[in-house]
Design brief:
Elements: E1 2-5, E2 8-11, E3 17-20, H1 31-38, H2 46-57, H3 65-71, H4 76-87, H5 91-104, H6 109-120, E4 125-129, H7 133-142, E5 151-154, H8 155-158, H9 165-175, E6 182-186, H10 189-197, E7 201-204, H11 208-217
Parallel strand pairs: 3-4, 3-6, 4-5, 6-7
Antiparallel strand pairs: 1-2
Helix pairs in contact: 1-2, 3-4, 4-5
Organism: Aquabacterium olei
Pfam families: Hydrolase
Protein name: HAD family phosphatase
Amino acid sequence: MTLMQAGAAVPLPPPEAVVFDFGGVLFNWQPVVLLQQVMPDRARNAEEALALAHTVFQSFMPDGDWAAFDRGTAEWGEVRGRIARRTGLPEVDLDRLMHAIPPHLAPLADTVAWLERLAAAGTRLHFLSNMPAPYAAFLQREHAFLKHFQSGVFSCDVKQIKPNADIFHTAIETFGIEPSRTVFIDDNVHNIRMALELGWRAVRFEQAAQAEADLKARGWL
């Protein structure tokens, strides 16, 4: 990857830090599968589960009910009630869904292994994740490999949320990074687009081998 400067191709300097998303990157996050497991009577196939996921989570857009949970502006009971009133789903079913999420957020072994290789190589590591407070506390309590991160930003702690620009600015200040010297890894295309608009380097995650190969191909590892 190069920058054009005065008509000449100039290689980008090596990155100084790598910033990881959590759900779908470092930890399992498959809402369709989760809903089929927790609400099999309402998600009898993949199509029904996908429609239900859009209804419950509102595609995780920043103004949705679940986004308020991610942002830390609505607590467990409040967001459960808001979704129940909006969708007609029983609160008991939503409570069961919300309780099922922490064990669903299992570490992705290939990404953890990559993270550990990066840490061993001395790479500066941070995280930037949309995460409700109960789940953030659970992950930090349960997973020792998170020690590899020098610092991180959870949406619930800063009352901001991806893909809005403000949480990226908070991350820049918190991590003490230069965006153009930082690689952001996320599975959500909206988050990737915002990072690129703000001058970060970014790679959309599909699986660990693909993301690592993309970084190496660009000379960023």
